[in-house]
Amino acid sequence: MARKVTDEVIERIKRWEGLRLTAYRDAGGVWTIGYGHTGAPARAGATITLAQAEGLLRQDLAAFEAAVERVITVPLTDNQFGALVSFAFNVGEAAFARSTLAARLNGGDYNSVPEQLARWVHAGGKRLQGLVNRRAAEAGLWASGAFVSSAPVPASLPRPAMLTGEATAATAGLVSAIATAASTPGPLQWLFGVLLAVSYGASAVMWLARRRQEVN
Predict the structure, then answer these.
(1) Which CB contacts under 8 angstroms, 24+ apart, belong to 53-57?
(2) Residue 146's pLDDT is what?
């Protein structure tokens, strides 16, 4: 079964492409309509409905979904697949297939993708801020849901939080005991409060020591 981008990715592509129901020339001078659709019915003076724009987008995406599946030979997450479909949709199937990005990725260099995306920000010989923004958004989608590390820091599981409900309860008990002793006059009340405070404090120290052993 042919792989498809998720609905979330489609919504992102819609935002990145923008919607024009009347045909216009893009930055490269190509007649475009709907969500970045080129070819019929995109021509001077042409107009379409929103439903037609949706249909054209899904029709176009099918070709680029197939292109990414055919060109890329390494496993991809849904977000990685979606980012590449968006990129290919924007630059064209031929340019995507022969890109350094595809070659490096097929060699297993996943980390090079954001840098390679950032190179594709020119149209008609000019650097366009809109393309800069789109490549950054595609790079964000590529990394979404994945572990990202600053080399040479290795990936590792997050350390458990030192303060949990158990520790919070012990701390609250200690504070409560001290507050009770301070607000009630008399030596017996003070002695009782001190004993409670020592008890809660000892419990908290023992718990912290146990947690440190678990973490280390």
Answers:
(1) 53/19, 53/21, 57/10, 57/13, 57/14, 57/17
(2) 61
β-pairing verdict for 31-34 and 20-25? antiparallel
Q: Mark whether 17 is an active-site residue.
A: yes
Question: How far is residue 123's CA from residue 128's CA, in Å, rounded to a whole number?
Answer: 7
Cβ contacts of 95-98, under 8 Å, gap ≥ 24: 96/67, 96/68, 96/71, 97/67, 97/71
Tell me, what DSSP letter sits at residue 161?
A: P
pTM of the prediction? 0.66
Distance from C-alpha of 17 to C-alpha of 8, rounded to nearest angstrom: 14
Q: Options 1.10.530.40, 2.120.10.30, 3.30.710.10, 1.10.10.10; which CATH number does 7-143 get? A: 1.10.530.40
Domain ranges of the chain: 7-143, 165-215
**Marked catalytic residue, from 17, 54, 69, 214:** 17
pLDDT digits (tens, 9 = 90+) for 139-164: 999 998 665 544 444 444 344 444 44
> How far apart (Å, rounded) are the C-alpha atoms in residues 46 and 41?
7
Nearest Cα neighbor of 81 from 141, 131, 146, 11 is 141
- Taking the C-alpha atoms of residue 127 and residue 86, their distance in angstroms, rounded to an integer, is 19
Measured between alpha carbons, how far apart are the two ends of the chain, in Å? 47
